[in-house]
Specification:
The protein is of the alpha/beta class. The protein is about 35% helix and about 20% strand. The protein has 6 helices and 6 strands, in the order βαβαβαβααββα. It has helices spanning about 30-45, 55-70, 85-95, 110-120, 130-135, 170, and strands spanning about 1-10, 50-55, 75-80, 105-110, 140-145, 160-165. It has a 6-stranded mixed β-sheet with strand order 3-2-4-1-5-6, with helices on both faces. α2 links the parallel β2 and β3. α1 crosses α2 (about 55-70) and α3 (about 85-95) packs across α4 (about 110-120). About 40% of the residues are buried.
Length: about 180
């Protein structure tokens, strides 16, 4: 059994004059949401054996907010393949996770993270968490999955259950519902 936590980057700013999407920073609401999610991780005693993350500025800044709030020490493995990746690419990245890592945190982008959940978690219509993801996977949302695999190389379709899906607005109403 492996565990996978997926964190979408926090809300970025479209107001900054950057030339590449890759370089977009977080806005103030995004910084607050990332801090709220870090505090949630701390309250829930979350810890990760490995962190796989997109090197996009908004992901880096998300982790810079989450880390101190969570009380954890992050040493992410930055992987450009995660940037705007498809579900298939994200699964390939996960197949390369450390064999001894039981709990991996992947930090990236939509629609890839959302599609990854849809591929990993069978749709039986009864999962409230999966139904919430289908409604919307907003920025800074956290999905916690249990995978029925012995090794990361075994990851594939329909091998997981989605235990919990937490949105920033679930923790602080000021971060929703207009929050993207």
């Amino acid at each position: 059994m492996k565990r996978l936590t997926l964190l979408r980057h926090a809300k970025s700013s479209w107001d900054d004059a950057v030339t590449r999407d890759f370089d977009r920073p977080l806005n103030e609401k995004g910084k607050r949401a990332a801090t709220v999610m870090g505090k949630f991780m701390k309250r829930n005693d979350m810890a990760f054996d490995q962190i796989l993350a997109s090197p996009a500025v908004r992901v880096i800044e998300t982790l810079e907010q989450v880390e101190p709030a969570s009380g954890l020490s992050f040493e992410p493995q930055w992987d450009r393949k995660i940037y705007l990746a498809s579900s298939v690419t994200l699964m390939d990245v996960l197949r390369g996770a450390n064999a001894d890592a039981d709990h991996v945190l992947m930090v990236g982008h939509n629609p890839g993270l959302e599609d990854l959940i849809f591929d990993l978690v069978p749709d039986d219509g009864s999962s409230e968490a999966r139904n919430a993801v289908e409604e919307k996977y907003p920025t800074a949302a956290l999905a916690e999955l249990s995978l029925d695999i012995a090794q990361w190389t075994d990851i594939g379709d329909n091998c997981a259950t989605l235990g919990r899906f937490t949105r920033p607005r679930d923790l602080d109403p000021e971060l929703g519902p207009d929050y993207n």
